[in-house]
Design brief:
There is one protein chain. The chain is an alpha+beta fold. It is built from eleven helices and four strands, in the order αβαβββααααααααα. Helix content is 45%, strand content 17%. A four-stranded mixed beta sheet has the order 1-2-3-4, with helices on both faces. β1, α2 and β2 form a beta-alpha-beta unit. The N terminus is likely disordered.
Length: 296
Amino acid sequence: MRRLIFLVAIFTSMYGSSQELNCAVVVNAQQTGNENVQVFKTLEKQLNEFVNNTRWTNKTFKSQERIECSIVITVQDYQSDTFQASIQVQSARPVHNSSYASSVYNFNDKDFTFKYLEYQNLNFSANQFESNLVSVIAFHVYMILGMDADTFEFNGGDPYYKQARDIVSYSQQTNSKGWAPPSGGDQTRNVLITNVLSPTFKEFRSVLFDYHFKGLDLMADNVKEGKTAVATALSQLENLHNRRPNSFLLRVFFDAKADEISDLFSDGPPVKIANLVSTLTRIAPMYSRKWRNIKF
């Protein structure tokens, strides 16, 4: 995980003129067998300019406050101007008084079909559908902004999540994949933002704040106290699990945090976490191999 964040940081340093984000956008077309076709290179260049040069908020971000993130678009097939792809989005946030960046958002969006003509304008409208390509990218930008803000202020991501919800609202009228209302076990953009804003899953956002601001940010001054606070924050997820077992949001959280949690509690001063390991094994069994690395 640390190597991934480090590579993202190096890659994103090329885009220092960004507003809120330092984002590396990669278009990987190897699966098409025609990865050297110019349209993919043009698309990658335009998306980097679009994501990093668009003013997404009214807030002024200092250079050191810009969010480190990456967007990797894997194109599986394309015909003329129609592309079938998936998109992997990741973001990280710095930990106070350290050189470490903590993974916050790690989402694999598999429902990504879009139309693109080389050199077409990419413009975002807060209240109007422009294209599925723009809507999907903008949705994930606002999820990055929202989750990052939640780690610094309790429910600080509200304005960004609400914009993400607005994007879902006007984009779902196009009947493109990923925007439809929740149905069964769907794990789509619509489901993601619906769950994040639902009181049913309130612990997800409170843990984002407590884990980072009350936990990781204390570790430079007192490692043991910081680790204890992280463990306390994670214990809140048991309430979410009891209410909605195997929920989508728990998977979203641990996709970003499992490696870090395992590393954090496998080294350094010991804290009382026997109950935490039991809880993690119960609520996130898909990562049980990582939980076995934890020492207590």
